[in-house]
Amino acid sequence: MKHISILPLYEATLASIDTTHQLFSRINDFMHYQGKPPVYQIEVVGLTKHTKLASGRYSIQTDRLIDELDKTDVIVLPLLCSEFKRAIHLNLPYTDWLIGQYRQGAEILCLCVGSFYLASTGLLDGRKCAVHWAAVNEFKQLFPAVNVVDNVLITDERGIYTCGGGFSYLNLLLYLFEKQLGRDIAILAAKMFEIDLDRKSQNAYAIFIGQKQHGDELVLKAQELIEEDPGANWTVDRLCQKLCIGRRSFERRFKARTTNTLVEYVQRVKVEFAKKQLEGGQKTINEIVYATGYIDLDAFRKVFRKVTDLSPVEYRKKYGGYR
Does this entry carry the keyword DNA damage (predicted)? Predict the structure, then answer.
């Protein structure tokens, strides 16, 4: 039997703690129905007997204190819901215990932006971490030593699991069940809780938010030009002429500040513009593509799929509203 320690981190969401507890418990129920012994012992393990969550809105009772637990098998870090630097500071008392348990062989299951706290411990340095698309820029600024991947839903590296996206932790739990207990159990859990089992990427959900907290006024001006007129034919040469700057040096400068090349930034803005048009209104897909400044429909479709993992037609079906 594996021991599961769910940490009621300060500023965590009650939903992520309770849902995780429910899913692990339901796996034990599945085992019982099949005449098998339970596979998980699930406990909420905290610093105090009662922990306040969500800035005091809720209180949760712990099963055990961390000082009373010498060894665990899986540690769950729940989703955080406040200003991340504050949450990190409040949860520092967990850090030595967390690192010690990991070094003893415990696996760490980190739910969405619980990764901000996990990264603060140093355990993610040099490793991959899935981060919610809306938090990527802030995460990269705070933790440059972490290899951020914002296009996948789940990472699994040396006993540390992360996921990007608010409720993608449901998929992370299914991933763990499949890894530990087999595909059949994961499918059963997915059906019982009606979770899309094979969701692998954040791309179809992400809204492009260009990095603008860099303090470079010239780069910011270029970003504003691109975003104010997404249908324009923004080539690198045209942007550099507009800004009166040399191409080679500005391309390096732009990439360093935004993590995107100029071409990538233009493409992402055009795709975001097209997504909004596809979500509402009656324009045809061809009309929308032409409005982005593209003449070659196939070229736009390739760029659109690269960014979203969907074709424009598939995207409209997914987000175009009820018909």
Answer: no
Q: Which residues make beta-bridge pairs with 109?
A: 76, 161
Count of CB atoms within 10 A of residue 104's CB? 11
pTM of the shown model? 0.83
Contact 189, 177 (CB under 8 A): yes
CATH fold of 2-193 reads: Rossmann fold (3.40.50)
Residues 6+ apart with CB under 8 A from 78: 6, 7, 8, 9, 12, 13, 16, 17, 20, 111, 114
Please tell me the distance from the alpha carbon of residue 151 to that of residue 258, in angstroms, as a whole number. Answer: 17
Secondary structure (DSSP) of 98-146: HHHHHHTT-EEEE-GGGHHHHHHTTTTTTSEEE--GGGHHHHHHH-TTS
Q: Tens digit of pLDDT for each residue in 279-322? A: 987 899 999 999 999 999 999 999 999 999 999 999 999 888 64
| SS3 label, residue 49 | coil
Domain 2-193 and domain 217-319, same fold? Reply is no
Listed residue (67, 64, 58) closest to 5, CA to CA:
64
**Distances from the Cα of 92 to the Cα of 120, 208, 271, angstroms:** 9, 32, 41
Give the three-state DSSP class for 210. Answer: coil
| Residue 96 CB neighbours (<10 A) | 11
Give bridge partners of residue 58 from the DSSP assignment: 53
Amino acid at 304: F
Q: Are 202 and 162 in contact (CB under 8 A)?
A: no
Query: What integer pLDDT is reported at residue 321 of this predicted model?
Result: 66
User: 192-219 pLDDT, tens per residue?
Assistant: 999 988 777 888 888 898 889 899 999 9
Domain ranges, ordered by start, for the chain: 2-193, 217-319
Residues across the chain: 323
Top-tier CATH class for 217-319: mainly alpha
280: its two tokens: 């509402």
